[in-house]
């Protein structure tokens, strides 16, 4: 059932939101949907939906129940017949009637609770999507860092073999051999640390999202420039954000609760039907009665509390709106900065490799020392690692922006599979 608030949000969404792509450098959408819906937070949010459905039924039914009143007594008359005793009894059925305006507001509160549970479910899917995206890129990053360290270690092994040959031929000193061995040992230690980080990232991804099958070799993403201005992404993010929808829903709910507490200043009447048997059955009584309680100070206090809660909710909504705008701006700025950093780091990596090749060639010709070669290799390795990190950071920032605007994966509670 489409609720009023949900319809207002859906009507404001851009047309592209339902058209999801399946980037080859990310898991398939079907696997992502299964993985997100299997997380404990999403399962808990789905269970909460059942809670709100039951609460909606409770509010619509009301907490007013029919009561039965039983009474028995002894009547003792003194005149004109002294010491005559009668057994008397009476029974009554009584029920408090909820005023129509209160029933309407209770039904509205129940419906708003269901709306909120849908938004909570969507928010859980969104947060799980962010976690999956982070875990995925952590694994890809460590995978390619391990590969880079492996290549670096192999290069240093080749360098050590060349030094050993030169030492045997008398063209190099033992000091060069010790330097080459030390550089190789340091690189092997870094390689072992990188393998540990890869195993940890892989284990985390497998544990949190067992539905995601990891390929033998992930595709290294190609960053793309986010050309659209920040204002466009702000509009998309504000239209889709579950956290903001939850905050707005709370404001509406407390507004309805305020109206309900105002209506409750008028007490609900109770009506009853009474049947009595008096004077041992000589008198039969059937009657209808009406009971109206007097409103006390508690009802006024509840109304004041509801007004304060409504004000708190509206202020919190304003805070969430600012937070969403800030987060979107930060993510957009990250995409711009990361893309530029990737281009610069890629150029630096290429330049450092050229430098390392030239220094190595000079060493082979006897025009430079081994220290220069090892330093050049180390700088080239650092540039390669930085290029990998920058490349993945640029791709991840763009995908995060797409995820937050619901253009990457299906993370809405009303979509199929959610």
Describe this protein's structure:
- By secondary structure, the chain is of the alpha+beta class.
- The chain has one domain: Outer membrane efflux proteins (OEP) (Up-down Bundle), CATH 1.20.1600.10.
- Helix content is about 65%, strand content about 10%.
- The protein has nine helices and four strands; from the N terminus they run αααββααααββαα.
- The protein has a four-stranded antiparallel beta sheet with strand order 1-2-3-4, with no helix packed on it.
- α7 packs antiparallel against α8 and α8 (about 295-365) packs antiparallel against α9 (about 370-405).
- The longest helix is centred in the N-terminal third of the chain and has 70 residues, at about 100-170.
Which properties best describe this structure?
single chain, 418 residues, alpha+beta, Outer membrane efflux proteins (OEP), disordered N terminus
